Every structure is written in structure tokens, then in C-alpha cells.
DNA sequence: GCGACAG
DNA sequence: ATCTTGTCGC
């Protein structure tokens, strides 16, 4: 799919923060932004503790059957450090190279991280939504900012994630009974209600939604295979 | 200054 | 996130 180049990626953390503030103004998650995706993609990255290449992967699913339609992977180096709030500057460059190969483009993308539930309103999902000009949703396994009450015990129960001024940033969603909730927030071109609806719809069995869960499995599998090959060739 | 802190 | 074995609970 087509990648928009809105800025360079080799920036300092200070420049990154400035870029986020600027880009956040272009995010659209207005109530009423509903979608009916036919293809839903999930993406993730896998890195090894020791130094070595990173692996990005995207899995495209049929929105109705949840069958895997396509898989894409991309190997590359990551230099930007992990800094809470600046995750996209670490993961987005490689993820975008993987998305570049995708054809046809998906109608919705789910990411492992936050959407607008971010200090400057531009988490990984929102940032990628702008570069890909595609609806995105953030499905984080833990909270970055905001407060929330414990959602109900039943699958599908959710509690609003609220910011300092009382704004609703996202939701803590119970995708499976007996498990901790995940944090869903709109990324771009979709509203929170619709984001919640689709995340729940692609989470038939596990805590992690199928798109990102399968993408996670894919990149870990590919990393181990590639590391094995590289080890035997040396 | 202190605590919090996606992956 | 990654590493890593067994173990506790629904």
C-alpha cells in the first residue's frame, strides 16, 4: 500500500515530541466514524534481547471468517531506543516497510500499542494511521496514560479510560473472562465505539485479538527461523 | 524532586 | 519487548 512520508524518522527524542504534537492535530476519531472492513490487518515486531535484526510482520484476515488471507514480513535494524511515549519512532519505520508490500490494502489495521490514549494524542496506531491514510485501532496490553475503573467480569465488558480533564481516551476492554482487560483506543479514521466493536468481534477466544495475536506469532516464528539459518551459516 | 511509564 | 521452568487457577 501507498506510504505517505510526513517527516523523517532519524530524529532525536526532542524532535520526535515536537512532531507528535504537530501530527496529532490531523487525527480524526470523531464520533460517527464507522467502518465496515472486509480485510483486517494486525501487525507486530519481534526483537531479540541481544543485538541483532528486528522482524516486522503483518497478517491480513478476512473480517468475516477470520481466515488468514496473507502474511508479510520485513527484516531490518532498529536504532531508536524504547522510550515510553515514543514507541512509534522505534517501531513504525520497519512496520511501514512491511505495509509497503501489502496489496490489496486492508480496511482496518490493529496495532500492539496505543491509539490516541497517549500523552500527546499520537500513539503508534494513530501515527501509522496517518502514514497509511487508513483506519487504525490501538490494542495495548497495558496502560500508558489515563484512569479507569475495573471493567465487568463478563467478556465484552468495558470501562472508559479517562484523561486528566475527564476526556475519554479509550476503554479497558475485557476480551476474555478471567483475564486482565486490554486497552483499546481509536487510532485514526474510526471512532471509539466502532473500534471496540471490531476488536471484540475479532477476539473469539483469546485475550489478544486475532490480528495482533497472529502477527505476534508470525514475527516470533520468523525470527527464530532466520536466527537459526544465520547461526548455521556461520 | 518523585512516581509513572505502550513495547 | 525478551529470557525462561515450573506452577497455580478457571
Task: Briefly summarize what is shown.
It is found in: Cytoplasm. The chain is built from five helices and eight strands, in the order αβββαβαββββαα.
Write up this protein.
The chain is α+β, with helices and mostly antiparallel strands and 234 residues long. The chain has a single domain, classed as archaeoglobus fulgidus dsm 4304 fold. It has 5 helices and 8 strands, in the order αβββαβαββββαα. The protein has an 8-stranded mixed β-sheet with strand order 3-2-1-4-5-8-7-6, sandwiched between helices. Strand 1 and strand 2 form a beta hairpin. The radius of gyration is 17 Å and the shape is globular. The model has no long low-confidence stretch (mean pLDDT 96). The protein binds 2 DNA strands through strand 1 and helix 2.
Defining key terms:
alpha+beta, single chain, 234 residues, 29% helix, archaeoglobus fulgidus dsm 4304 fold
| Strand order in the sheet with the most strands | 3-2-1-4-5-8-7-6
Instruction: Using the 3D structure, state the CATH architecture.
Output: 2-Layer Sandwich
Compute the separation of the termini in Å. 36 Å
Using the coordinates shown, work out and report the CATH topology.
archaeoglobus fulgidus dsm 4304 fold
Counting DSSP E segments of at least 2 residues, the number of strands comes to: 8
- Percent helix: 25-40%
Instruction: Please state the overall shape, judged from the principal axes of the Cα atoms.
Output: globular
Beta-strand percent range: 15-25%
Structural class category: alpha+beta
Give, in order, the helices and strands: HEEEHEHEEEEHH
Q: What would the average pLDDT be, to the nearest integer? A: 96
Level-1 CATH class name: Alpha Beta
Give the count of structural domains. Answer: 1
Task: Find the CATH superfamily.
Answer: archaeoglobus fulgidus dsm 4304 superfamily
The number of distinct helices, counting runs of at least 4 residues, comes to 5
